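Format notes (please read before filing issues)

Several people have asked whether sequences and structure tokens are stored in separate files. They are not. Every record keeps both together, in the order shown below: the sequence lines, then the token lines. Line labels are part of the format and must not be stripped during preprocessing.
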Amino acid sequence: MEFIVSYDLNEFERYYKTSWESIPNREQASLDEFERDIILDNPSHLIVWKKRNRIIGNAIWHETYTDKHSEQDPRDDDDRKILEELIGKSRECVELHELWLKVEYRRKGYGKKFFSFFEKYLADFGFKYLIHYTDNENAMNICRKRGYKEGYGVKAGDYTWYVFALEL
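Then the structure lines:
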């Protein structure tokens, strides 16, 4: 398996539309505008996982701050407080925005390999903090085993997310 940084966006979008097929009761997905803008702004923010020349997973990440998503978009109070408790006030960090691995490849150690790769990749570029919001048990277990600090309570629609933070 290999991790490819800055993958071709058009090819990725074709894969993405079919990536949810193995999930029961899910309709065909397409990349939303926010994620597409992240990749267009900086293609290195898309990492594709390939095995035997097939895409089996992906990650999309972006730079952010503990007190605001962007220059114009402040975080809500609960989100900001959790991040401040985990890594401090007004800190620049990286958010692992989307993490996806096809169902048939899960529980085989690929997630652990990705986190090792991604943490080193970010540290090599001088980033100090990584945050990841998830409600996926496998992702939570990987973060816990890797020593991430943990918070809970960020609401997004009908979901309440766990928040994980790691100082690189």
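For reference, the curators noted about this record: Residues 21 and 28 are 7 Å apart (CA to CA). The chain has a mean pLDDT of 90.
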